Inverse folding.
């Protein structure tokens, strides 16, 4: 089985891109499934079901979504291998711009949209900078100039990535993306022993443990203070 | 360059040799001030483990990416302009697997070819095939040649050499900048020399296309529909490096469409235009008719059609004249 991790900021068009891309994979006779990771709520699983795509959904709730993702992905892979899928796509939202659910040796795709503003590539961390493929969406509603500037900024922060423009509504570009996601010679059975490309953001303070009261004496553990004196 | 040799490089030398590398540091939020005498290894060495975690800094990744960035930029700056003179489409199949019957179709620089056909007939796939320079590896099995030859793979993957630029009806400017700042930003990303002159030329051309004038200081979000389209077309014609321009309809208001097409052609572009507007469609030299996912026919614009075009243009002028009368608060009478 092939595994692909797809992530990107909320509402960047991940699900629409995946749905269109799986359409193209289906036509090639490939069996694809999706594992959707989100935080509080998602009904994207129904969209996948409606399209006849096997899907598992995981909501992280009170936990950090990426920590939740990495603690569950192996079980999802097991499911995929047992069901005999050719390709398993994991979809997760990068909620804090610092996250990156990518695993070494596993194809990583980041989806971002033209509407998010040209400084966005600068603001996103490893999720964008260490992706193998960057998909840029919503190109049909901005000018050619903005598309070119945005793509060139993405290229500056991640020169090694293949950059593709995909339209999640019409599917333009999704066939092309589909050809980059599956490689027969790249099968995998398990993620055990593999490593994340980049460590996840750490946090362990009293608020992680359920503290609700405000004030210095309740702040324990990994606490950091803003610099109120400096010019920033 | 491997990571080790990269690490030994002095920042000052690196930036002197590759001035463009400063944009890599800037866009990755890596401050250069006061650090220019350091080697790259010393530079990254300043960040201890905590700082690296803090900034989500992956030093090995930066060595690789910076090396790749320099390689790409050198290739971009050094290579001679590859002129795209012709694009040839070799037939594939339609949705039912039936072979397309047009022999081969070559579109040359300076030509306008229109694409017509009902929604869902396969227009997007044809454009997709051209953009992806299909080599029998798309659902239609079509093949695309550039200048009569099998094309370089760079057309598929490079962000700097994209084959197709698009202008479509529902595009908007989403940035909050003045016209000048906007075009300047685009020129910067295209690494254009003599920027001021180029920007001036774009604004001048856009003003010639639009009926109502705007200044370089006008915010782009307050341009009228016609002015926006004029600026998009002038900017794409002059600044975009893509040799093929794809137009998805141009609304007939506030812009001289004939002149807009002429501007694109004078910048040595190949123009493909998806349209159902008879005036635009007949302005083309040929039109491709798409049916059931395949190219059904290629029609050359006939003499008779060209005569009809002048009649249509005459009707169009009348309609526009009525429109501007209405706008100016006049009473509509016989023209």
């Amino acid at each position: 089985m092939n595994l692909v991790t797809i992530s990107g900021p909320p509402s960047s068009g991940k699900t629409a891109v995946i749905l269109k891309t799986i359409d193209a994979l289906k036509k090639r006779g490939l069996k694809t499934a999706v594992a959707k990771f989100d935080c509080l709520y998602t009904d994207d699983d129904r969209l996948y079901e409606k399209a006849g795509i096997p899907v598992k959904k995981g909501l992280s709730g009170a936990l950090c979504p990426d920590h939740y993702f990495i603690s569950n992905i192996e079980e999802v892979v097991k499911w995929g291998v047992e069901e005999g899928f050719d390709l398993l796509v994991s979809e997760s939202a990068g909620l804090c711009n610092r996250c990156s659910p990518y695993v070494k040796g596993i194809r990583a795709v980041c989806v971002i949209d033209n509407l998010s503003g040209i400084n966005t590539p600068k603001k996103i961390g490893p999720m964008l900078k260490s992706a193998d493929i960057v998909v840029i969406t919503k190109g049909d509603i901005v000018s050619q100039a903005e598309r070119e500037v945005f793509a060139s900024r993405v290229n500056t922060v991640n020169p090694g990535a293949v950059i593709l423009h995909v339209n999640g509504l019409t599917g333009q570009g999704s066939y092309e993306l589909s050809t980059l996601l599956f490689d027969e010679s790249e099968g995998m059975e398990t993620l055990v022993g593999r490593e994340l490309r980049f460590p996840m953001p750490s946090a362990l303070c009293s608020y992680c443990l359920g503290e609700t009261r405000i004030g210095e004496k309740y702040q324990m553990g990994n606490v950091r203070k803003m610099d109120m004196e400096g010019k920033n | 360059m491997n990571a080790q040799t990269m690490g030994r490089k002095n920042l000052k030398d690196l930036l002197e040799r590759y001035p463009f590398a400063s944009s890599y540091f800037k866009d990755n939020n890596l401050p250069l001030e006061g650090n220019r005498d350091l080697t790259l290894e010393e530079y990254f060495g300043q960040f201890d483990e905590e700082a690296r975690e803090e900034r989500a800094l992956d030093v090995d990744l930066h060595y690789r990416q910076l090396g790749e960035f320099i390689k790409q930029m050198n290739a971009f700056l050094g290579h001679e302009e590859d002129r795209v003179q012709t694009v040839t489409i070799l037939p594939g199949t339609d949705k039912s697997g039936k072979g397309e019957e047009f022999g081969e179709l070559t579109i040359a620089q300076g030509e306008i070819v229109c694409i017509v056909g009902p929604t869902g007939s396969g227009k997007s796939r044809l454009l997709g095939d051209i953009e992806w320079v299909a080599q029998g590896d798309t659902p239609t099995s079509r093949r695309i040649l550039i200048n009569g030859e099998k094309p370089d793979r760079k057309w598929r993957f490079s962000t700097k050499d994209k084959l197709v630029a698009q202008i479509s009806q529902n595009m908007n400017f989403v940035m909050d900048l003045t016209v000048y700042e906007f075009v300047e930003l685009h020129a910067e990303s295209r690494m254009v020399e003599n920027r001021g002159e180029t920007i001036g030329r774009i604004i001048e051309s856009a003003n010639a296309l639009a009926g109502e004038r705007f200044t370089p200081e006008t915010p782009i979000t307050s341009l009228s529909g016609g002015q926006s389209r004029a600026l998009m077309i002038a900017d794409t014609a002059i600044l975009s490096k893509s040799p093929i321009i794809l137009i998805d309809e141009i609304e007939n208001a506030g812009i001289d469409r004939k002149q807009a097409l002429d501007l694109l052609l004078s910048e040595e572009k190949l123009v493909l235009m998806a349209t159902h507007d008879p005036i635009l469609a007949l302005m083309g030299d040929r039109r491709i008719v798409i049916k059931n996912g395949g190219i059904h026919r290629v029609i050359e614009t006939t003499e008779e059609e060209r005569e009809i075009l002048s009649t249509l243009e005459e009707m169009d002028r009348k309609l526009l004249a009525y429109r501007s009368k209405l706008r100016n608060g006049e009473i509509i009478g016989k023209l």
